[in-house]
């Protein structure tokens, strides 16, 4: 019995089947890449926050879950050798596994160098040189703050990162006005100015990444204004740092972003403090 010669329809069906199988393989590979990037993020971020009498730290983190837009944001808080608390938040260029791995290097580098100098400007300058020495083609924006729990003094330096938001219990709120410097990993010899703030009883500071405040549905200025309003209400109402962090990350849904979103809140509730 002779076999029926293949028709154009048969060839088309065969090609469609092959393309479908390839598309399925690519989708599966992409999904595994996303899962790996998210696992890297979670493994590299701190598991707990330090504590100090009269102060409360809270974080919220929402990784992006669209395509490969995962991997660049971090937050950190740790006790320094002299008893002060170091706070950092930042964002690595890129959204892939390489960015997630690089984020871990930057965060660990900041921690390690903070044992040598925790002065925010000097710390960012040293971290900048470390990143350049790695020879990577990536850069990172970052804010580093040093909190003295005995006085409420916050010293801050900023490397290309969006500003912080503050609010006080008497109803005042706004965006920090510090000079800042360029992102880490751009140019050698960069200096980072230090700005000093005072965290008073009932007050809060909100550190965040741009995924919280900027996206297709909202400009960065509109997003920051939204966080300013939330922080102001929280400070006047005496809400916890955790409640404010949760409200800020919930508000990030309105920006329509496809990026990571990280929030780190430090609040001064005054309980047990000796200021």
Descriptive account of the structure:
With 275 residues, the chain is of the alpha+beta class. Helices cover 36% and strands 23% of the residues. It has five helices and ten strands. The chain has a five-stranded antiparallel sheet with strand order 1-10-9-6-7, with helices on one face. The chain has a five-stranded antiparallel sheet with strand order 2-3-4-5-8. A hairpin with a 5-residue loop joins strand 6 and strand 7 (173-175). The chain is globular and about 80 Å long. It starts with 7 loop residues before the first helix and ends in a 7-residue tail after the last strand. The model has no long low-confidence stretch (mean pLDDT 84).
Q: What's the number of extended β-strand segments? A: 10
What Rg, in angstroms, do the CA atoms define?
23 Å
Based on secondary structure, the structural category is alpha+beta
> Could you describe the largest sheet, including whether it forms a barrel?
5 strands, antiparallel
Portion of residues in helices? 25-40%
Average of the residue pLDDT scores: 84
Quaternary structure annotation: single chain
N→C terminal distance: 98 Å
Q: Give start-end ranges of low-pLDDT stretches.
A: none
Outline: globular
